[in-house]
Each structure stands twice: as C-alpha cells, then as structure tokens.
Design brief:
- One of its GO terms (biological process) is homophilic cell adhesion via plasma membrane adhesion molecules.
- This is Cadherin domain-containing protein.
- Keywords: Calcium, Cell adhesion, Cell membrane, Glycoprotein, Membrane, Repeat, Signal, Transmembrane, Transmembrane helix.
- It is found in: Cell membrane.
- The protein is built from three helices and 20 strands.
- The chain is mainly beta and 331 residues long.
- It has three domains: 9-123, Cadherins (Immunoglobulin-like, Sandwich), CATH 2.60.40; 131-237, Cadherins (Immunoglobulin-like), CATH 2.60.40.60; 257-329, Sandwich (Immunoglobulin-like), CATH 2.60.40.60.
C-alpha cells in the first residue's frame, strides 16, 4: 500500500487523478505526479513566516528549489504536519514557480516506488515601474524641419511578468520654456517600448534655442500604476530663414572727394600759365572746397562740411577766366 490520502488502491488513484492499479504504480519507478499546487502573491507585505497550506499526504524528505536548492530556506515544509510555510519575500521576476519533489513508498517494505510533486506558483504583482534606458536624451536639430518630423526616440522596459502589469504608456509631462504656437507630441509603437517625439507647428530659434521635456512612462498595473520619467533636451539651431535687410547707415562725408573737374590748357604743361586755379561761387556756407591736382590740372571737389540740404548748385571758375564749368550735385 502507498501512503497517499487513504491507504487503499482506489483512494490512491482518486487522489492522483489517474486510473492505475497498485501494480502499475509499483512498476513506474521514479515517475513524478503533482498532487498539490499552492500560490503565493509576490506583493504580500505582511509578517513572515506565512502559512500556505497543508498537503493531505504523509511526506518523506522533500527536495527542490527553495528548500535545499537555491534560493535556500525560502520554503519550509514540516514532515510531521505536512504544513508549508513561506519564510521570506519572493520576486516573481526571478522565480515564477517552485517544484518540490518527495518520495512515496510501500509501507510494508519501505521501498521507494514513485516520486510525487508539490508546486508553489508565484503570482505576479505590479512591483516594477517601467524604466527608461537613459536618464537623459539629447538631440540638436535645425529650426526649419517639416511639421511632424521625428526628432528623437525614447525607450523603456518593465520587468513585471504578466502583460497587464508590464504594459505601459508614454506622456509628455512638461516642456520648458512653454512653446508658442506649436507643441511636442509623443507617439508609441505598440508593444515595442519605444516612443517617438515629434512636433506640431513651427520651431523658431529666435524664440528659444533649447527646450527641456520631462517624458513619463506609466504602466497599466493595478491597484496602483507605477511610473518613472526621463529628461529630453532638444536644441534648436538657427536656420537660414531670414533675408539680410539693409538698415540706416551713418556715412561720414566730410573730406570726401565727390568730383574731378577736367580742363584743357594749350599752354606748356607745368608752367605757371598752364596751372589752373579754381573758385566756387554760390557756396555761402563753405560746404565744399576745390583744390588743383598738380599733376593733371584737374579740379578736385571735396565736401567741406555736411549740410542738411539735399542738393546744391555750384559755379566753378578757373582764375582770371570766364565760367568754364557749372555742376549741380545731389544725394
């Protein structure tokens, strides 16, 4: 007979949920049947040790992870009472199940005939927030990209085991300085953990050379969603968006040569008779002066001082001669 629930063959088959005779069981040496499964929530925050339950079978020595294999001493099984206890917290992301093995034996001879199993399943709780791959992201772009241009990608991961706790969404929590006439947006690639930041509107370097975004990843776990954030810096380079414009210039005219007056004289070049002398008439404020070029005999007309008038009429005479030249100057 086998020590399992009750000692009879029919009771043994019922306990194991199989249709085998006692002789079949004796022939199946080292065969493993799971006779009980317990569950433990990794989010349990109470006192330890924690009672899980009792196995309705006489136990021999039990082996397996959590008992005599790593992680050691996490589970405690009382061979006399068949009670199972959890001795410390368990992280499902490291251990999702513990499979324990014990031996059933024939009472009369004590021969070991079959291995049986007890499973302890760890229930996932939302104990991991999504985490970004980088604490900070940074990109530099020109100020004139097309609306909707992808600026930068961010990536996050959540270590929780089940999909309901592992799934998360991105959001832009803040932008500094506050955008004017445009906005940053983030689009998600489903089930990839990637978010792409783009913009709507027009980026203008003259309004801001840098924007600092706080991007948040929030999971969908219950009862309380968990989240983390990262910083994204977007630098805006000045683009060629403006034509150069002339502004009012201040020009210094005093002493500027404005005209060379040419004369012809048949006298011998370089003699006193050949040399010309010039005189300005009509310039009552002495705004101009005229000198003689000793090499060419030309009259060199200069601005002597700046006046508010926009035009002048000057009469230029060569000395001892009639008027040879009259010239009107403007702006």
């Amino acid at each position: 007979k086998i020590w399992c629930c009750l000692l009879g063959t029919h009771q043994l088959n019922s306990c194991l949920g199989i249709q085998l005779s006692a002789s079949d069981i004796l022939l199946r040496q080292k065969r493993n049947w799971v006779i009980e499964t317990f569950t433990f929530d990794e989010g349990y925050s109470g006192a330890y040790p924690l009672y899980l339950g009792r196995v309705n079978i006489k136990l021999t020595e039990i082996h397996g992870p959590g008992v005599d294999k790593e992680p050691l001493n996490l589970l405690k099984i009382d061979n006399k009472t068949a009670e199972i206890w959890v001795m410390q917290p368990v992280d499902r992301e490291k251990h999702d199940q513990f499979k324990l093995i014990f031996q059933a034996y024939k009472k009369e001879k004590g021969d070991i005939n079959v291995e049986m199993g007890i499973n302890v399943d760890i229930i996932d709780t939302n104990d991991n927030e999504p985490k970004f791959n980088n604490d900070m992201y940074e990109v530099t772009i020109e100020e004139a990209p097309s609306q909707g241009t992808e600026l930068i990608n961010v990536t996050a991961t959540d270590r929780d085991s089940t999909e309901k706790n592992r799934k998360f969404s991105f959001s832009i929590e803040s932008v500094s300085p506050t955008p004017q006439n445009f906005e940053f947006v983030i689009n998600e690639e489903p089930d990839s953990g990637n978010g792409t930041i783009s913009f709507k509107g027009c980026l203008d370097h003259e309004k801001a050379q840098k924007y600092t975004l706080i991007v948040k990843a929030t999971d969908h776990g219950q009862p309380k969603p968990l989240s983390s954030s990262t910083t994204v810096i977007i630098n805006i380079e000045d683009g060629n968006r403006h034509r150069p414009v002339f502004t009012k210039q201040k020009v210094r005219l005093q002493g500027v040569l404005i005209s060379r007056l040419q004369v012809t004289d048949e006298d011998t070049r370089g003699t006193k008779a050949w040399k010309a002398k010039y005189k300005i008439q009509g310039d009552t404020n002495n705004n101009f002066r005229i000198d003689t070029d000793p090499e060419t005999n030309e009259g060199l007309l200069y601005v002597q001082k700046v006046a508010c008038k926009s035009s002048f009429t000057l009469l230029i005479q060569r000395a001892f001669e009639n008027i040879y030249f009259a010239q009107e100057t403007g702006d």
